[in-house]
Amino acid sequence: GSNTLRRPGDRAINDFTTHAVAAVDAETAGWPVAGFSSRGPTYCTSDGSAAIKPDISAPGVGIRSAWSDGGYGDSNGTSMATPHVAGVVALMIQACPDLTPTEVHTILFDTASDLGPAGKDNDYGYGMIDAWAAVQEALAQCGGGGGVDCACDAEFNVGDRVQALVDDPQGGTGIVAGQCGTVICGRDGGDSLRILIEWDDW
């Protein structure tokens, strides 16, 4: 029900101090918030006024998880949802290691799929986390290939197999002539085509 957040998730001094995650049922149409998932508002603010919580949502129902006895099983909880967020953050940092914590939060919020009432609300926060969109925005902020049409050229489509014709002239990547890879994204750079390749055994 409303106003059920516990500490520290209820703290809302600003948008970035504490990140509260809601659990949704991703296997049910409409991605409903789980009944056990805490909701806002919170009054743990600098002046005692109401603030919207949680901040974002992630799958938290029927999640395959490792159990303490060494086995595996399906579990429910915001403790199942939070690792999804942590995993997306790890992918973002891998894509753009220079991101600050505030930038990470902002990207997560801006790229989430809005659910419930428009904008941030006390059920879903900013909405369901979107791993692909978050990583693409992280790449874009680092000058990579984020936010582009990956099927932008008939000769280099996503999934195409390619082969390096020469060694990396800069020697920084270790790519050698004859090494194969798969096109995973690309963009039309005007006079040239930029493609992102996932190289085999690299």
Mean pLDDT: 77
List unreliable stretches of 5+ residues.
Answer: 145-154, 188-192
Shape: elongated
Strand order of the largest sheet: 5-6-7
Number of strand elements: 7
Q: Which oligomerization state do the chains in this entry correspond to?
A: single chain
* Category by helix and strand content: alpha+beta
Summed up, the helix count is 3
Question: Can you characterise this structure?
Answer:
This protein is α+β, with helices and mostly antiparallel strands. It is 20% helix and 17% strand. It is built from three helices and seven strands, in the order E-E-E-E-H-H-H-E-E-E. The protein has helices spanning 78-95, 101-111, 131-141, and strands spanning 21-24, 56-59, 63-66, 72-75, 161-163, 180-188, 193-199. The strands form three sheets. Strands 5-6-7 form a three-stranded antiparallel sheet, with no helix packed on it. The chain has a two-stranded parallel ribbon with strand order 1-2. Helix 1 runs parallel beside helix 3 (131-141) and helix 2 crosses helix 3. The longest helix has 18 residues, at 78-95. The radius of gyration is 21 Å and the shape is elongated.
